[in-house]
Design brief:
304 residues; mainly beta; Neuraminidase; five-stranded antiparallel β-sheet; four-stranded antiparallel β-sheet; 25 strands; globular
């Protein structure tokens, strides 16, 4: 089955990931691809980081400590090596790990920011890394702030907070350093406000992207385009000027179905998304999409 059209045509591969006996997905929340096109899936199970090759063969898993809170997953290339940044809103922390699961550090609420009276108010959902090694953490399920840290992990500034005004955020669910412009900027998936917001890397508000946005969850670059998984049943492709170039697998209005997002397997239709939560793109332009579903759903869109 094919979805999209023109330069954005893909073959939909349902059930691409082959799980061995004894391994089952929980909610599939994050997905990234490394330099060898291996795919890492952050899901709420004892196999919280499950790894596959580009053909869907299971390579192994790790990360049981993230079983309850697995959420955002970001891959960063630093000094010739690759690292994973994991967001865990249940344990109120983000962590940095090697690809094989050696956790290098864990970072809790930014105490110096003075924005939280107790740890439980901080529920980070995603991490982004800037070219200079600075970190940005989105507190999507907590108080709606973005936190900026230096390469050494030291807190620099915070901005946002819940609201609908320019610069304010309602569930800043995903975050990404957009290197497409000559001057990199920060993109935030302001999911509750049904828009994207753009900021300088110092937190100055620049503008909005609202066209085609239902409940945007995150980002991943694809050439000059940007892939935006949208919780309300589609994966949106934004062109270089942030116009909508394609809406893939549009399942509208699936979010109105009883029990959504946990639609029974018999009603999960190939070619139609239910609740895209994260997406990534490999070296060949193929897209991997994970959905917010209790027993997980991972789909490969193979570029035609």
């Amino acid at each position: 089955m094919r979805v999209g059209g023109g330069a954005h045509t893909y073959t939909w591969i349902e059930g691409w990931a082959r799980l061995p006996g004894g391994v089952r997905f929980g909610y599939t929340h994050g997905v990234v691809v490394d330099g060898r096109d291996n795919v890492y899936v952050h899901n709420r199970s004892r196999d919280a980081v499950a790894v596959f090759d580009r053909d869907g063969r299971f390579l192994g898993s790790w990360g049981e400590e993230f079983a309850a809170g697995a959420h955002g997953l970001h891959l960063s290339r630093e000094g010739g090596r690759e690292f994973l940044y994991l967001a865990d809103p249940v344990r109120h922390l983000v962590a940095k790990a090697t690809l094989d699961g050696d956790v290098l550090w864990r970072l809790g609420p930014p105490e110096r920011a003075g924005l939280y009276e107790k740890e439980e108010q901080y529920k980070p959902t995603d991490v982004a890394v800037a070219p200079d090694g600075s970190l940005y953490v989105s507190d999507g399920y907590g108080r709606g702030f973005v936190h900026h840290y230096g390469p050494d992990g030291g807190w620099i500034r915070s901005w946002g907070g819940r609201g609908a005004e320019a610069g304010r955020l309602d569930c800043p669910h995903g975050i990404w350093v957009d290197a497409r412009p000559a001057q990199p900027l920060l993109l935030v998936a302001d999911r509750g406000n049904r828009r994207l917001q753009t900021f300088t890397l110092q937190g100055e508000h620049l503008g909005f992207v609202t066209g085609g946005m239902r409940q945007p969850c995150g980002f991943h670059p694809s050439g000059g385009d940007l892939v935006v998984p949208d919780l309300h049943g589609c994966v949106t492709i934004l062109g270089p000027d942030n116009h909508v170039a394609a809406c893939l697998g549009d399942g509208a209005p699936v979010w109105e179905e009883p029990g959504w997002p946990n639609v029974p397997a018999a009603r999960r239709v190939p070619g139609r998304f239910i609740s895209p939560h994260a997406a990534c793109v490999d070296s060949r332009g193929d897209i991997y999409v994970v959905e917010w579903i209790a027993d997980g759903r991972l789909t490969k869109l193979e570029r035609v």
